[in-house]
Amino acid sequence: MRKRLIFLLTLSLFIISCVALPAATALPPATVKPDSASPEPATIAPMEPAKPSTSPAAQHLGRGINFGNTLEAPNEGEWGFKIEEKHIEAIKNAGFDYIRLPIRWNAHAEWAAPYTIDPTFFTRIDEIVGWALKRGLKISINIHHYEEMASDPWANEERFIGLWMQIAEHYQNYPPELVFELMNEPNNQMNAALWNFIQNRALSVVRTSNPTRDVIIGPIMWNSYEWLNTLDLPPNDPHIIATFHYYLPFEFTHQGAEWVEGSDDFLGSQWAGSAAEQANIRAHFDVAQAWAERHNVPILLGEFGAYSKAPQDSRLRWMSFVAREAEARRFAWAYWEFGAGFSLYDLETDQWRSDMLKALIP
Fold this sequence. Notes:
It is a single chain. The chain has a single domain, classed as TIM Barrel, CATH 3.20.20. It is globular, with a radius of gyration of 19 Å. By secondary structure, it is of the alpha/beta class. It contains eleven helices and ten strands. The strands form two sheets. An eight-stranded parallel β-barrel has the order 1-2-3-4-5-6-7-8. The chain has a two-stranded antiparallel ribbon with strand order 9-10. 45% of the residues are buried. 35% of the residues lie in helices and 11% in strands.
């Protein structure tokens, strides 16, 4: 995972009007693209709970874990390790319900239309998905670390749509326990209006071959909870799951992270679980919950975690509190991550870090 220090940035925001695109069964035209800046996020007042989604996978994703630093590397294994079947077995035996599988599809596809994905890479993803489904686990696959899409979405839009056309058709006959996630953490040049336009195109492509598959969609600004209210989701699709990621306080969760400039200055930051610290997290989750109830959309907390250089006692308190608060709001969740810098699992000993596992699954 390569997080940016997004929560410490000063943003210059402009008000825009976003035009919602209707859902379609054919590929939407790409001739006109919104290019306005994103609207400022706003806190939504709590409302009466709505009826839960009818989507079975949305209700039962439950407790999950990310396979970070594996298939979202340029090539599997370059960032640490390769996924083995024994890892899937360990996840099942530990009591998890769900695996989030980040994938850098764009590193394994041609650059010219029709953007053909390497069949060997498809076979590898099939293998891992099969291991999970065989054990009764839910699993989601996404497009992760398509960095060119973030820095130049206009030039990469057709390739992004072409990738989803292939992925959707390839998995159209898989059981509903396989879930799609359109894009991990839209950011950089991907403003809200443009992301709504592109994700509606991608969703239409997916729906052509997978009309009832659950699809996860998150907002811009690295899937920040504050930006859920900018999502323009189809109102009559009961198979949408909204997602956000959570790493606050950032100085605590990313202290010492090598990819975050200046993060060594945060070393030693504690999360004591004080009333004020707990209230901050509750307030943030209340925003996501209120939005979800207003739109009758289930929520997946797709990533949360504290880096290994944080004090361990604080990590355990923070992890446990975040997981319990998510569950109290009926959010599914997926911890970041299995076997790298945030890891729950010790790859050298092939054992869970028992204190961390207990914090997540008491």
